[in-house]
Amino acid sequence: MIRFEPRVESDALWTAASFAMAIAAGLAASAILLASTGADVLQVFSALLQGAVGSPKAVATTLVKATPIILTGLATVIAFRAQLWSIGQEGQVFAGAMGGYLGAQVLAGLPPLLFFPGVLAFGMTAGMALGSLAAVLKNRFGVNEIISTVMLNYLVVYLLSWLLQGGPWGESGGTISYHQSPMLPDEAFLPGMLGSSRLHAGVLLPFLAAAICGLVMSRTPLGYEIRGLGYNPEALRHKGVNINRTVTIIMLASGALGALAGAIELFGVAHRLRADNLIGLGYAGIIVGMIGGLRPLGTVFAGLFFGGLASGAVYMRVLGDVPAALVPAMQGITLFFFLCAGVVARYRVVRVAVQ
């Protein structure tokens, strides 16, 4: 008879095998879904691969698409590893873009070496403000962070809607009011890389942020506190750690990372404030962080995978003739199997002799 038992220690080989099986199962389930629409499965996957990494332009698009969701994924990692179930990444993305836009108005005219760090700092400060508010509500009033961060998401989105629709940041033409801000000046665009106008310098920041997060989580007292808060907050409290202070730091860091995604998206891609460019980036980051096993390196790989899906989606629709809704469906399928793999990796198969 076969029985599953929890593992005392993780097994790297079994964990890798579990996630490899998850990838295979996700591809198989996606293939069945595609076949049910009458599409040529091989052609669709070929188009997806071509759109994701089939050319330098495709690779650049994949990196640009992956940038915000890696950052919001890292925001998820920081919070969820401490069992702070913040769902505020969506609002933080909006806040980061809004803070960055305000910074562009305040810092206009500065040289690029001061302007770009300045506007990104404005954006991150806005995200930290959201994170600190959620931390205060939790520490002082005992408000569950899921509730507070979700409600803050709505507040930020509606604030942006007011600012753009008849508010001070809206663009108007004649008697028509557009739900967007005026275009930023060319000097406010993040500089391109490798001779490409599509590949902006902001794509480097998620990798730098992931390296810093990995270092902090594994080599610093704060990383110990984050992990300890997730495993056993009472034991951490008895060691003399100020839990409220740690919660505040975590929410500030998570908010800053989520907001950095919105600021980079504004200055590197959209170049104007528009809600439709930002919708879903925070929630996608939660998925990416979960698929990445709540680890910075895994989040980077998961973000690149999702960036490739987003980049290849156009090729899938055009060359594969499949509905656009299949892309988020494939993402959901992938998430399901990866979450299953995370559970399977924590158990081992034991053969028990029948008496």
Number of strands: 6
Distinct helical segment count:
13
The largest sheet has its strands arranged as 1-6
Shape: globular
Strand residue content:
5-15%
Report the C-alpha radius of gyration, rounded.
22 Å
Low-confidence stretches: none
The helix/strand series, from N terminus to C terminus, equals EHHHHHHEEEEHHHHHHHE
The structural class is: mainly alpha
Helix content: 55-70%
Distance between the termini: 10 Å
What number is the mean pLDDT?
89
Write the layout of secondary structure elements.
Elements: E1 2-6, H1 12-36, H2 41-53, H3 56-80, H4 89-106, H5 112-141, H6 145-164, E2 171-173, E3 176-178, E4 192-193, E5 196-200, H7 205-219, H8 221-231, H9 233-238, H10 243-270, H11 281-291, H12 296-319, H13 326-344, E6 347-351
Antiparallel strand pairs: 1-6, 2-3, 4-5
Helix pairs in contact: 1-13, 2-3, 2-12, 3-7, 3-10, 3-11, 3-12, 4-5, 4-6, 4-10, 4-11, 5-6, 5-10, 7-8, 7-12, 11-12, 11-13
Pfam families: BPD_transp_2 (PF02653)
Organism: Aminobacter carboxidus
Subcellular location: Cell membrane
